[in-house]
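Supplementary material to the annual report.
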Amino acid sequence: MARVTAVEDRDLVQRARAGNRDALDALLARHLDDVFDLVYRVLGNRDAADDAVQDAFVNAMRGLPRFRGDASFRTWLLRIALNTARSALRRRGRRREVALATGSRFADGAPDPEERAVRSAETERVQALLADLPEKQRLAVTLRVYQGLSHREIAEVTGSTEGAVRVNYHLGIKRLKERMQ
Amino acid sequence: MSGADHERVRDLLPDYARDGLGPVQASRVAAHVAECDECAAELAVLGDLRAAAVVPSERLAARVRDALDAARATGAPAAVPEIRLRTARPWRRRLWAPAAVLATVAVALVVTRSVGPGRGTDALDSAATLMARDSVVSAPYGDWPGADGTVAGLAMLDDLSEQQLQTLLERMER
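Predicted assembly:
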């Protein structure tokens, strides 16, 4: 996953606002993985996540003229993605599916079929354990571990407080540790 | 290594696991993990989580690009959220010190009732510290937290039961 710097984002956002399509494409390329991962953790379904990712980027593009830069573009975009995913979840009547690996493409890239099967089983187990956490804990762990956000940035994305994020992360990791061992 | 250092290293483990630290901090974390079973176990969990990362399908980027082109053609603005960290407003900042004292007393009372005789003052102090810290904006993440012991880190939270943590959460999220 590519490292994202705020300075380069700022430059790309300015150019995208001015209608530069390459800049918009670059922002998409830089943030697609993070947005997908977050949305997938909320919805637990790959097809639903694809739809929500598309909606999130369209919403963000349309909202670019009003992006003031108070937060980083990345946290702003992830906030939009989270809101979009939550709306999709509400439309589906809160019927969240447990995120199993079946049919999914994971980032481990094991080439050997046998090793792939072993890894896949382990991956399924970890995915299911993570999916089983309450949403606030799941989001705190996801945004901290996969997106590398600080507690403060996670608070910005989730509309919570830094302290609450810290506690939710702690509870989530504690539960995962107990269940994984 | 002191308890405060343990706490700081533990806070940085997710960044270490994703290779997101500079060389100095990374070597400091590595040295601590080599001697600390608790951090080594947590790092193993973080490694398992990272191995189970999901990535989008190869066709998703093209699909989103097409959707962006279509949306640009119609040009309708969308409602987007304003991001504001839930922190004290300026007028509240002036009241922070007395409010922190009141909050400390309140949390101590709540936690005392739910703790019973088994838990000591450390848990109460940690809860109170956490509560007070939540009232102000702290330094950006990535700096080493202050060495004054006021950081409400993961190790402090270890001293609280799950029920106590939930009580804290409810109060913080009001």
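Residues 96-115 of chain B form the longest helix (20 residues).
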